[in-house]
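debug: dumping io for the single-chain case to check the tokenizer round-trip. Nothing else runs in this session.
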Amino acid sequence: MSAKQNKLSSSEIKEVKKAISNLSGSIKVSQTMTREDVPEPVAPMAGRWPRLFGWSRPDPVAPSPLKQKVLALVKKYRKDIDVPDLPRVQEEMKAFFRSQPMQPYYRLMDLRAEKEDRRLVIIGDTHCDYNSLAAIIDKLSVSSYDYFEKATFIFLGDYLDRGNILFEYLMLLIGFKKLLGERCILMKGNHELISYNPTTQELESKVEPSDSCPVLNQYCGTDKEFLSLLASYFAKLPTYILLKTKKGTDLLVHGGIPRDIYLDRCSILHDTGELYVIGDDAVRRQILDNMIWADPRAEKTKLQGGGSRFEFGEEQFLRFAKENRIDRLFRSHEPVNNGIKTFYGDRVVTIFSNGGRDNPMTGYPYVDNPAFGIMSIDGEMRYESVHLKKCSVRYGFSDFSTYLYMGKEAAPEFGRKIEEPHLNDEFHVISIL
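debug: decoded output
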């Protein structure tokens, strides 16, 4: 080939510049993403042009062994569990329940003591929604930051009821907890307030209507040990987490703050995280129960009538926050259409993590855009949608599409369908309302 043949014409140079411009314009990320979350753009390779004036394809980054196990778990339980499989499933769950230590009603976490970047992934209600939990895992798996090796996952409760499948979801949740160990914290929601009645030999729930307990009684009723262990495990889950970061002190809880009548009778000790109460254990249990059922409202104050569920307003929260030196409160407990809703100058944040209009496994199809939170080691928060929308990937002059979204045009099997490496993952920006 002659030197003259190596030169590009002016029209060819324009085509190369156009290709470079199109490629750089296609790399779009959420404004909330950190640099390391963004896949590196593909660099040109001299002397190697797989397509006319295009870029070479990147070599896929091998996932860590733990990430491979997590993704294999998602794939494994995406298939239905049939009735003949239940004895094996029950034995696996019983082995897990027996292996779990007794947990206190609280946890103290201090990110200021971490010596490396240890992010927190905060997940709200999932309610037997396999698709949404799998989508969160799928979404995090495409980041160059290995969340499964490094991050701590905190679930804010409500695993049972309201969804369309149960056993597949429980096996995914429990399997995820087994793989991550102490870096996966399951908290107690009001739907986990269940007990085993030795007289009736059935599970009973404090929530009506309850979907999960009747199913468990029907299909697992002959295994009384399984029902008892399951109820005992959920009873042992912590009610709240006191979290310290460079931004201050946060309270993570399923519902919110105690009723007014208890505000002067309790305080959270910052050195241990324990709840100090004026009264006996019955008073402590009532206060913890309040923190599972409470809901924030935009008003200054809210009247608090009878019943388990009650509401609180801004003045009531500010009083509790001042007396307990709480800067922010993260909770779930309520479906919000955008997945995130804030109160009182963003000091109280509701996170709801299941839904999707075209998601057949959710009990909340009217929640269009469920979300979850990611907290950096210094306490900065960002919020991401659970289900990715269609991603357009460009190589040279060719476009490829991939889906991480439960939509009408998505692949029949919900989940990651990636045949081409990602150049850009368009993480949908969550607007805080």
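debug: round-trip ok. The longest strand covers residues 240-245.
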